[in-house]
User: What shape does this take?
Amino acid sequence: MPVTNLKTNPIVVKDLVKTFGEEANLVKAVDKICLTVEPSEILLIMGPSGSGKTTFLSMLGGLLKVDSGQILLDGEELTELSQSALANIRATKLGFVYQAFNLLEALTVKENILLPTTLIKQDRSQVIQRCVHLVNQLGLAHRLDAYPKTLSGGEKQRVAIARALINQPKVILADEPTGNLDSQSGQEVLMLLHDIARDHGVAVLIVTHDSRVEEIADRILWLEDGKIVDRKQETHNWVKDPVCGMKVDEWRASFVATVEGTRYAFCSERCQQRFMAQPKQYLD
Ligand code: ADP
Ligand code: MG
Assistant: This one.
């Protein structure tokens, strides 16, 4: 008996490979990745620049042809589908969220959100009902008639999330969704993605550099040179920023200070400076 029922897992990947270039210039961007994602799971994909994160996500999204291997999306083998079948699966089972938001500037918020609903036949009144529910959940109800250029970065990304969800996908693929946001809007967007995974039963795959995101993840996939590497515990030492209380990784923090033989790590230069001005205020 198989341990997991392949039909019900939103994503099952087997031995996925993608190379670019030839001979001396050959790059194994994705090198035999295997992965099974559960419904409602929040999976972070982390790794240095060039490690294959975008290539991997693009193949999962049916946007890039695989060299070899299998991708089962909600039980359907993506790599064997015709272009039109693939387009249909993308419209019904996948939602995309990008770093650059990719909203259409000439359309209002509401029109942007509803755009994917025109790709498939469905009951209009149910679409409108879902739209109302989503804009309320995402705090966009007062912005429905606004144009993207009048929105903040955080609002734009929330519109993109609503657009990604409107067709009730099984999977959301988000490539650096907080890359163009300040840290507070970034946190908010991540919290929303977290709530959405739970409330809508959607699996959410997020590519990110931001280690603060780790708190909301069920699992982290580390990529290096196109391969999954096991970097679970040994690469982190979580400590509290003594000034703001935020969780920071002492081993990788850019802002650290040693006072009376004890090392402290900070989320930002600002917290470090505040601490150094009056360390005693923050130590008890
Ligand atoms: P990441 O998103 O982790 O930064 P990418 O998936 O963009 O990494 O890239 C992985 C590797 O594949 C890199 O070495 C990159 O230069 C290479 N690569 C990605 N896309 C292409 C392409 N279209 N043509 C040639 N090389 C590519
Ligand atoms: Mg990338």
